[in-house]
Amino acid sequence: MNQVRTLDLDARGARRIEKVPQAIIDDALARMQAIVE
After folding, report:
1. pLDDT, block means (10 residues), the chain with 37 residues
2. What number of CA atoms fall less than 13 Å from residue 28's CA on the CB side?
């Protein structure tokens, strides 16, 4: 089974650029869940 690797975003100097509306996040998660099932 493939596993998603954890990224240390702080160590990579990552920063947030913008915020995404919750509706878009919910839609993306629902689509991903449908693919995985």
Report:
1. 67 87 96 91
2. 6
